[in-house]
Amino acid sequence: MKLEETAIIDGLRNGDTHAYTKIYDLYHERLYAFVIRFVKLPELAEDVLQEVFLTLWRVRDRIDSSRSLQAYLYKISRNCVFKALKKNARQCEITERVKTMTVPLTFSNEEQLRWKEYEAILSDAINCLPMQRKKVFCLCRDEGKTYDGVAQELGISKNTVKEHMVLATRAIKNYMSKYIDFQPLVLFVFLSFF
């Protein structure tokens, strides 16, 4: 077997795909059994094995034919398993962080009713704005357009758009404060949402 293995390694080192296929056929099943003990998931084990054989092909010119190919493959497999487990742990950590950051806000029925009331008051406040100011405010807030974009669309200067936004926000704040005891931060958050 040692002479045959040496011939296969020499073929692999010279880029012989038949030698590569022979190695794959000889060791895939054994390496799979080794890898699955660590990663537990068949799909992940197959991904690891794919990386093992890709690594083997990339480093084929550095393989020493006087050493055990099996030992070399197990060493590559071990390294690929560690790499996959580390990557998987990192992805799980990121997923958990994203989950905690995106926990949906849940409101009680009372809070939902209060927010609907706020929305109605905000809508009334916007409707009380002069027509041009209302148009500027809606283009910026509802459609998310930039001051430059709104200025170009309406044929006015960017400074005029900015002035309309300042005056609209002030008017809305004054209107809403008549009906709601808003803290400035709450008002800012509310206006940011709507």
From TrEMBL:
Gene3D superfamilies according to UniProt: 1.10.1740.10, Winged helix-like DNA-binding domain superfamily/Winged helix DNA-binding domain
A matching Pfam family: Sigma70_r2
Keyword set includes Lyase: no
RNA polymerase sigma-70 region domain mapped to chain residues: 24-90
Coiled coil: none
InterPro entries per the UniProt record, alphabetical: RNA_pol_sigma-70-like (IPR039425), RNA_pol_sigma-70_dom (IPR014284), RNA_pol_sigma70_bacteroid (IPR014327), RNA_pol_sigma70_r2 (IPR007627), RNA_pol_sigma70_r4_t2 (IPR013249), RNA_pol_sigma_r2 (IPR013325), RNA_pol_sigma_r3/r4-like (IPR013324), WH-like_DNA-bd_sf (IPR036388)
Domain RNA polymerase sigma factor 70 region 4 type: 121-168
The organism's place on the tree of life at top rank: Bacteria
Protein keywords: Sigma factor, Transcription, Transcription regulation
Signal peptide coordinates: none
Family statement: Belongs to the sigma-70 factor family. ECF subfamily.
Name assigned to this protein: RNA polymerase sigma-70 factor
Organism for this UniProt entry: Niabella pedocola
